[in-house]
Design brief:
- By secondary structure, chain A is of the alpha/beta class.
- Chain A has two domains: 169 residues, Rossmann fold; 234 residues, Rossmann fold.
- Chain A contains 17 helices and 20 strands.
- Helices cover 71% and strands 1% of the residues of chain B.
- Chain B contains 15 helices and two strands.
- Chain B has a two-stranded antiparallel sheet with strand order 1-2.
- Chain B starts with 6 loop residues before the first helix and ends in a 7-residue tail after the last helix.
- Chain C has two domains: 278 residues, ABC transporter involved in vitamin B12 uptake, BtuC (Orthogonal Bundle), CATH 1.10.3470; 45 residues, no CATH class.
- The chains are: A alpha/beta (508), B mainly alpha (341), C mainly alpha (332).
- Chains B and C meet through helix 6, helix 12 and helix 14 of B and helix 7, helix 12, helix 13 and helix 15 of C.
Chain lengths: 508, 341, 332
């Protein structure tokens, strides 16, 4: 595969034109044109639902486009299956690691290659030395952490000696050092002449390693060009829908903490993935919990929620001890949790909207002791559909067919339906479009007004800055800093998230 | 002349239960045309006897399959219940109705054991109920050894009151078993579609994690479906024993496949989350009608009946698969394209 | 070396060895070499069946039609033999039947994406019916003597030719599945089907191939069955699929796919088919067969799964504790 061969398509190593794709009535891609040249890093930005993963799957041959053409080094390819894309030199490192759990790391990496295993092992060793990543290649993949699994996926990509490498959100589970290593590798690959499509929503990364940028929203490319032509604000603007006014930071009154008793408190709370957590949340307050993926925030929330064992410490809800209670008891006591992964843990995709919203009420008496009171069920569901502006064709619509934003609103509605005193939101705006995000922020503010205590777990620094009254930062399972309203800035949060001290130590 | 259907009517068309009803009507029409004796109530209802077991059990196996599981031990529990009934009555002097209750309780325990392994130990339903089918068949045989009567003979001589269970006919024509089936069908319908419990069963089947997060005790729910299924098998076993007049440990041996067929045909997704009692009931009736009509009207002998039932099942599921994936082009599949989900 | 000792196959083998040892303790006449070797000899039909279905189970699917395929291919082969065609022709016809049914199963599951349990269930019904149509409900008897005597021919030291062939086939298959590049695709597809697709493995084709192989193995099992029994009834093979699946589970295969091997399946087959004989030696009447089988299956599977779940949970907790530096280890 000679990298120097360029083609009649100009200087592009890789080009996709006019890609269109619909799933049923859902039009996901509406005519995409992108291209990457040799020694270029194209940062592809866009929220989930914009269609990025669909586009990548088309390029990799997992899906077929309804229309459009793909060229590699000027040669048109018909990516009807992954084998074709792979043989033409395209490789995608997926966002969610897709390893073989029962095989070792080494077997995982070598699987699918056509060369002799001995040669492959040698090459693998060389690459691992080059990038200086220390991983026991004889471990079974199922024992790896998410970050380690992602490393293995990246290794696969490097082994492929691809001409075009697609990295789909590669840093989402990496530590600071690992991210630096990755950037160095990207730089090396660039020098070798490889073209890289780098999917991310972290704008700082974009300016660090990209040569070009393209913004994707709602199935079209809204902006593209050399990175030097853009500023951060221009990119942010490009991400928002046309008719969306700038969301001003809601001017809310500062909470008067004097004399207020905490609605929820954790005292030396320790469990699997977090240690010695001390925090308080007051009624009507939003406590932002910042940190990197894998810092232990979700583990803490899940342990409070009753999904994992508590090792030591206490959790108090309005003074009442709720440590170690089962999920059912926790719900009854007045805590609810909006899961991080709504498809996996939050949504009943083949059930209708009404059933979804009322699903946490089924075990209670609200909808009836023995028989389901449909009237009550629909009433409750309707209340949330209208209040949250959820766009549905009817209460009996299957929730799986809704957009990400509407699905998220349903999951939030379900958690609020039990009338909790504490709501834990885990990445509530992940993968939803800007308009839905605005709506969700509105819901959160309404909760504040009602006096509900809110724990907001988010990896989106801007979100924490915008919404929180106070914030804590979690690093490697411990609280690294507590910030009062005026102190909450992106810089401060970012630093603390990576363990670099800027915030004060927590006071009990 | 244009007839415009209201949108609600269009919805009815699309419903699977409607298709099933059409199939049943079609069968009845074809069979009746071929052999007018088919329509005689005595004959028509007489056929139900044979497939009442399948109908009853499939009602509750629906619950199991909605949670994403499967139950292949129901057949062996039918036999186990029968023999427990017989031995308890004949060799241990139980009152016949007390013996029936004992049989049902024993079945409940069997279902509970399997359900426990599936729900609380996390073992796959296929394997557990597979082991269960061996185990309960074997225990049935051992129980029959407790009896004075030799196992191949079967225990007989039941009191008239017990036998009347299957002999009694409402209005002189409708056999009591059919009444029992209808009552159970109504009960199952209410339980699954109208109660909290039924809603929990559905939610567990659609997404067990999300159900846990909603505070539902998913493991108890899953275990309970196996108990229900087992008890329904024992009810079928008791009725069958009454009908045959003999208690034997192997009377349910061949029921497993037709039961699963009825449940799947009735619209239940084997992956869970979707299913309906009316659908299963109609499917069981459709299968039963087929199995009755073919020998009577087309002189198909008993052993060949598996073919049309199997073909029906295949046609339905293939048809469903194709409908759900418009634009599936076989050529590109052979060339190696992967159809997206 | 320790790795080999830890494999599931060794566990199953040790279990078998332990079983034989225990039985001999209770009834020393079991410890005759002839008796023990006959345990293996008599498992030949199930060895082929279990090895065949192992291909399918490794890819994460299931096939409940193998009993019917055994019956049909045995009926077809036996009929040809009875009517004077040679053994080669009969074998070819039988294998053809198995391959065709396998192909149908493969297309239904891999192409049409119908859940394998349901589809093979439907196929099972149809094939069972076809057996009746083909044999017109009668037994297939009067098979040529040189065919039926084949089952008795000894290779060496009381091991029959048939079982010797089975061992050879299993060894070859095992090596192909575990050592060759394309052979490893089976386990990969079962371990993570989407992941396999992503690295270029044609998951659909592998699944179809697994069903075709399963069909062929079942039909070979059918011919061997015909030779051993000497006649075919229309209900031949009824219920065998369940025993074959049980054998695979006993042999260390996971029904979710990606774990296990042909060697394990064949060991499980020996265990399953030896149970009745073992029970006789232990003084139990054959009445206890099903009970013991069911009990055994349940116990092994429950212990296995519980242990697995426990380890997974423990690992997860370990990793999380490392992350918060509660246990040794620097990296997150």
């Amino acid at each position: 595969m000679k990298l120097s061969e360029t083609a009649s398509q100009g200087h592009s190593l890789f080009t996709a034109t006019g890609i269109t794709k619909s799933f049923g009535l859902n039009s996901v891609l509406k005519g995409i044109d992108i291209s990457v040249g040799e020694r270029e890093v194209l940062a592809l930005i866009g929220g989930n639902g914009a269609g990025k993963s669909t586009l990548m799957k088309i390029i990799m041959g997992i899906y077929q486009p309804d229309e459009g053409r793909i060229f590699v080094a000027g040669e048109r390819i018909h990516a009807c299956k992954p084998g074709v894309s792979l043989s033409k030199g395209i490789y995608m490192v997926p966002q969610e690691p897709m390893l073989f759990p029962n095989m070792t790391v080494e077997e995982n990496i070598i699987m699918g290659f056509h060369e002799k295993p001995a040669k492959l092992r040698k090459r693998l060793k060389e690459i691992m030395n080059e990038i200086n990543w220390d991983l026991d290649i004889f471990r079974k993949a199922m024992s790896l952490s998410i970050a380690e699994q992602q490393l293995v996926e990246i290794l696969r990509g490097l082994m492929r000696q691809a001409r075009v490498l697609i990295l789909d959100e590669p840093t989402s589970a990496l530590t600071f050092d690992e991210v630096e290593s990755l950037f160095k590798i990207v730089g090396d690959l660039k020098k070798k002449g490889i073209g890289i499509i780098y999917i991310t929503h972290r704008l700082t990364e974009v300016f660090q390693i990209a040569t070009h940028v393209a913004i994707m929203r709602d199935g079209v490319i809204t902006l593209k060009g050399k990175i030097s032509e853009f500023t951060r604000d221009m990119l942010v603007k490009g991400l928002l829908p046309q008719d969306c006014e700038e969301t001003k930071k809601q001017e809310t009154n500062e909470i008067d903490y004097i004399g207020l008793k905490p609605a929820f408190e954790l005292i030396h709370f320790s469990g699997y993935g977090f240690w010695d957590i001390n925090l308080k949340i007051y009624p009507g307050e939003i406590l932002g919990v910042a940190g990197l993926v894998g810092a232990g925030r979700t583990e803490m929330a899940l342990t409070v929620f009753g999904r994992d064992k508590t090792i030591s410490g206490q959790a108090l809800l309005e003074g009442m001890d709720v440590t170690g209670l089962s999920t059912r008891a926790i719900l009854k006591a007045g805590i609810n949790y909006v899961p991080e992964d709504r498809r996996l843990n939050g949504l009943f995709t083949i059930s209708d909207v009404a059933a979804n919203i009322t699903s946490s009420l089924v075990t209670g008496k609200t909808m009836g002791r023995i028989f389901i009171n449909k009237k009550v069920e629909y009433e409750i569901a309707r209340r949330y559909v209208e209040g949250f502006r959820i766009r549905i064709t009817g209460l009996d619509q299957l929730s799986g067919s809704l957009s990400g934003g509407n699905q998220q609103k349903i999951v939030i509605g379900r958690s609020l339906a039990t009338g909790p005193k504490l709501v834990i939101l885990d990445e509530p705006t992940r993968g939803i479009d800007a308009a839905a995000r605005k709506d969700v922020y509105g819901i959160i503010h309404k909760l504040k007004k009602q006096g509900v205590a809110v724990m907001l777990i988010s990896s989106d620094m801007e979100e924490i800055v915008e919404l929180s009254d106070r914030a804590v930062v979690v690093y490697r399972g411990r609280i690294r800093g507590e910030l009062k309203k005026r102190e909450i800035t992106q810089a401060g949060l970012m630093a603390a998230s990576f363990g670099v001290g800027e915030g004060k130590q927590v006071e009990i | 002349m244009k007839i415009s259907f209201s949108p609600k009517l269009k919805q009815v068309w699309k419903k699977w239960e409607f298709v099933l009803t059409l199939i049943i009507l079609l069968e009845i029409i074809i069979f009746a045309l071929k052999n007018s004796k088919f329509l005689m109530p005595r004959v028509l209802f007489g056929s139900m006897n044979d497939i009442i077991s399948i109908c009853i059990i499939s009602l509750f196996v629906t619950f199991v399959m909605i949670t994403g599981g499967i139950d292949i031990q129901a057949g062996s529990i039918v036999g186990l219940s029968s023999i427990i009934l017989g031995v308890a009555w004949q060799d241990f002097g139980f009152n016949i109705w007390a013996a029936s209750c004992l049989a049902m309780a024993a079945a409940g325990v069997c279902g509970g054991i399997s359900g426990f392994f599936i729900a609380y130990c996390g073992v796959q339903p296929m394997v557990v109920t597979l082991g269960g089918s061996f185990l309960y068949t074997g225990i049935g045989l051992l129980v029959s050894k407790l009896s004075a009567t030799e196992s191949y003979k079967g225990i007989g001589g039941f009191p008239e009151g017990f036998l009347r269970l299957s002999k009694y006919r409402l209005f002189g024509i409708i056999p009591f078993q059919v009444i029992i089936f209808l009552i159970l069908a109504v009960l199952a319908y209410i339980l699954l579609h109208k109660t909290r419990y039924g809603r929990e069963v559905f939610l567990v089947g659609v997404n067990q994690n999300a159900a846990e997060y909603s505070g539902i005790n998913t493991r108890l729910i899953i275990m309970s479906t196996y108990v229900l299924s087992a008890v329904s098998a024992s009810v079928a076993g008791i009725i069958l024993t009454s009908y045959l007049g003999t208690a034997k440990s192997d009377i349910g041996a061949t029921l497993t496949l037709p039961i699963i067929t009825a449940v799947v045909l009735g619209g239940t997704l084997s992956t869970g989350g979707k299913g309906s009692v009316p659908g299963t009931a109609l499917a069981a009736v459709a299968i039963g009608t087929l199995r009755f009509g073919l020998p009577l009207c087309f002189k198909v002998s008993q052993q060949y009946l598996d073919i049309p039932v199997g073909i029906l099942l295949l046609v339905i599921i293939i048809g469903r698969a194709l409908l759900n994936r418009p634009g599936l082009r076989v050529k590109t599949v052979i060339r190696g394209r992967i159809p997206h989900k | 070396m320790r790795k080999i000792l830890k494999t599931r196959e060794i566990n199953s083998f040790l279990f078998l060895a332990g079983l034989i040892f225990l039985v001999g303790l209770i009834n020393p006449s079991f410890w005759q070499p002839v008796t023990i070797i006959n345990c293996f000899n008599d498992s030949v039909v199930f060895t082929f069946l279990s090895a065949g279905i192992a291909f399918v189970i490794l890819t994460g699917e299931i096939d409940v039609s193998i009993g019917a395929v055994l019956g049909l291919s045995a009926a077809v082969g036996a009929t040809l033999l009875r009517d004077g065609y040679g053994i080669a022709a009969a074998l070819f016809a039988a294998i053809f039947v198995g391959a065709v049914v396998g192909m149908i199963n493969g297309i239904g599951v891999a192409v049409l994406n119908i859940p394998s349990l349901i589809f093979t269930l439907g196929v099972n019904g149809v094939v069972r019916g076809i057996i009746y149509v083909y044999t017109k409900g009668a037994w297939v008897e009067n098979l040529p003597a040189d065919f039926t005597l084949m089952s008795n021919r000894l290779l060496t030291k009381n091991v029959t030719y048939f079982y010797g062939a089975a061992v050879l086939v299993v060894i070859i298959g095992h090596i192909i599945l575990t050592r060759t590049r394309k052979g490893k695709y089976f386990v990969a597809v079962g371990d993570n089907s989407a992941g396999a697709t992503l690295v270029g493995i044609p998951a659909d084709k592998i699944k179809i191939l697994s069903y075709v192989l399963c069909g062929i193995f079942s039909s070979v099992a059918g011919m061997i069955y015909a030779s051993r029994i000497g006649f075919i009834t229309p209900t031949a093979g009824n219920g065998y699929e369940m025993k074959a699946i049980a054998a695979c589970v006993l042999g260390g295969l996971s029904l979710t796919g990606g774990v296990g091997s042909l060697a394990g399946a064949s060991i499980g087959a020996v265990i399953m088919s030896s149970i009745s004989r073992i029970l006789v030696f232990l003084g139990f009447s054959s009445d206890y067969d099903n009970t013991i089988t069911g009990f055994l299956l349940l116990t092994i599977v429950v212990i296995n799964t519980s242990a697995q779940n426990h380890t997974v949970r423990k690992n997860r907790h370990e990793i999380l504790l490392v992350r918060t530096a509660q246990k040794g280890g620097e990296k997150a």
